[in-house]
Amino acid sequence: MQIHKNDTVVVITGKNRGSQGQVLKAMPEENKVIVANVNMIKRHMKPRAQGQPGNIVEKEAAIDASNVMLICPKCKTGVRVGYKTLENKTKVRVCRKCGTALDQ
User: Fold this and answer.
1) Cα 63 from chain centroid?
2) pLDDT tens digit sequence for 43-95
3) Do the beta carbons of residue 67 and residue 35 sit within 8 Å?
4) What is the pLDDT of residue 104?
5) How far apart are CA 7 and CA 61, in angstroms?
6) Distance between CA 84 and CA 76 in Å, rounded?
7) Residue 66 shares a structural domain with residue 90
C-alpha cells in the first residue's frame, strides 16, 4: 500500500470528494485508511456505569485506500506515486508529476 500514517491525502471519489486530511491509521491488510475529519459516522454508545448516560459519538470511519491520493508538497495536488531506489539502497516514494521524493 502506498499510503502511510501521517501522510496528507485528498479524497478523489465518494461523498467526501475533494476533502483533504491527514491519515490517522493505515490498515494494509484490509487496504483501508482512516483520514482525519473525513467519512464521519455517529456511534451510539451504551452507558458504562449505572447512573451514567449513554451518548452519541462522532468518529472517522475507514475509507478504501484506492479512493485517496497522496498530496505532493511541491505540486500541491493529489498525485500518483512511484518508487525509486537511492544510491544507499533505500527505497523512497516519488511524485510521478515532478519527481520529488515524498518520504521525509
Assistant:
1) 8
2) 999 999 999 999 999 999 999 999 999 999 999 999 999 999 999 999 999 99
3) no
4) 63
5) 17
6) 21
7) no
Yes or no: say if 34 and 25 are a contact pair by the CB < 8 Å rule. yes
Measured between alpha carbons, how far is 93 from 73 in angstroms, rounded to an integer? 13
Q: How far apart are CA 92 and CA 103, in angstroms?
A: 6
Same domain flag for 57 and 104: no
pLDDT at 103: 81
Written as nine digits, the cell of 33 is 485508511
Checking if the pLDDT of 22 tops 90, the result is yes
Residue 59, C-alpha cell as written in the block: 468518529
Q: Which domain holds residue 40?
A: 8-71
Residue pair 62/68 in contact by the 8 Å Cβ criterion: no
